[in-house]
Amino acid sequence: MSETTQHPVDVCVTGDEAMIRIQGRMTFVEAHPLRKFCLRMMEQGVMRYVVDVMACSSMDSTFIGVLAMVSLKGKGRGVRVEICGADEQVSGQILGLGLKRIFLFHDRCDASLRAPTTLVGEDDRAAVQGTMLEAHETLVEADAENRSKFKDVLTYLRESSA
User: Would you give the distance in Å from CA 67 to the centre of its chain?
Assistant: First the structure.
């Protein structure tokens, strides 16, 4: 894994809703703390995740896979993941992985973050690799066509974590 600059992921929780604002290019570096945050919030009963991507320039497959994981893990419990403010680049990256049916899309973001907290990355390489593996397995689970896209990535991640 190469060294990358971390971009802000700001979060704010109000009742059973989490607002997530992302800025810049989202990668596996930002995906791991987001995964930890979302899983913790799901345990606490947060049912709605609104992801403001208006200032996001792009997302890698790990980051998208984490968003898909939240949606799929919470599906039976009524959890919703909403993507708002996506431009053609970001929506194309998400829709190109066959994920239209697991997210709600909105053109605008109406909610604002009150007293946001910025998620911070982690140096635990094994934990980050685990997130990468789970994210890519989720993408294959969400759309079988992703199996051929991520076959080599999955093989590499499985072998390097063994």
Answer: 3
d(CA 97, CA 129) in angstroms, rounded, equals 21
Rg (CA), the chain: 15
**How many angstroms separate the CA atoms of 144 and 141, rounded?**
6
Compute CA distances 113 → 18, 50, 127, 135, 144, whole Å.
9, 11, 28, 26, 36
Q: How confident is the model at residue 4 (pLDDT cuts 50, 70, 90)?
A: very low
What average pLDDT does the segment 81-99 reach? Answer: 95
The rounded distance, in Å, linking the Cα atoms of 71 and 133 is: 17
Rounded to an integer, what distance in angstroms lies between the CA atom of residue 25 and that of residue 7? Answer: 7
Q: Which of 11, 43, 30 is nearest to 116 (CA)?
A: 11
Task: Determine the CATH number of domain 9-161.
Answer: 3.30.750.24
DSSP string of 90-144?
HHHHHHTTT-GGGSEEESS-----SS-EE------HHHHHHHHHHHHHHHHHH-T
Q: What is the pLDDT of residue 2?
A: 42
| Whether the Cβ atoms of residue 99 and residue 141 lie closer than 8 Å to each other | no
Distance from C-alpha of 100 to C-alpha of 64, rounded to nearest angstrom: 12
pTM of the model: 0.91
